[in-house]
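User: Hey, my collaborator sent me this sequence without any context and asked if I could get a structure. I don't really work with proteins. Can you help?
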Amino acid sequence: MRKNLALGVDIGGTNSVFGLVDVQGNLYFEESLSTNDYSTPEDLVEKIYQRVKEIGQLNNIIGIGIGAPNGNFFSGTIEFAPNLNWNGIIPLARLFEFRFKCDAVLTNDANAAAIGEMIYGAAKGLNDFVSITLGTGVGSGIVVGGNLVYGHDGFAGEFGHIRVINDGRKCGCGRKGCLETYTSATGVVRSINELDSENKTISKINYIDVPHANDVFRLAQEGDLFCQEIVDFTAQVLGSALADFACFTSPKAYILFGGIAQSGQPFAEKVKKHMEESLLNIYKDKIEIRISKLHDKNAAVLGASSLVWNQQD
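Assistant: No problem. I've predicted the 3D structure and written it out in structure-token form, which is a compact way to encode the shape of the chain:
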């Protein structure tokens, strides 16, 4: 019997995840691929097509939803994404439509995550919130009055490229001091080399050949003083930026999603503390910091797939 399924695709700077989802949000299949293994977007589309074909689900797909860095909802293109190896403007929705012979809709990956949180996760019941993705880069999905904010050109929500430190770290976008150079997973790793501390020389992080942000948070929990300083610094920069962002939309909550957010409530509490210290008085004690409830279900895949059901309405 035919089962109507949406193919949800989350394109990330490190990994790309795709899954088959029904209208209730049940995930029937999920797989992760290394984005950098595919030199062209056509190669990645072909790989996903072949995997869906192998499991016998091609005929059940009624549409494709895609979340991607610098994804433009209006044009269906990825445009000059600094954390991807593919350059220029990429007509990704059209590539999927051509190969799968069905409609595809694309949006920014953080927007897809926000939709997933709103329908299935930590933002259920909220009409005004901002989803913050803390991965290879930093993104945001802004929901106001229950509607996702795209802006006039489809690019609203590039929170990771708000500049937080004047003439600071060089960013992949070509500018300096962007938020994601400090609070993304790659930004946390950069802090290992760039932060000064008397505890630096005795830190266990020095004995890891290729340290990852997860290592920093793990060692911090184990009592490593230098790693604790990095976590505090990351929370301070993020909390301060969230305090400023509150002036634009006055959200009920910020939803933290991604690898760094998976470190849990202690990190959220640190971010909350620093945010409250920097908030304008009229916003104090009004904004929650929540951790995504969909880390084990992939909010971006669910959100991307829900774009298909929205198109069906």
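In plain terms: The two ends are 23 Å apart (CA to CA). You can pass these tokens on to your collaborator as they are.
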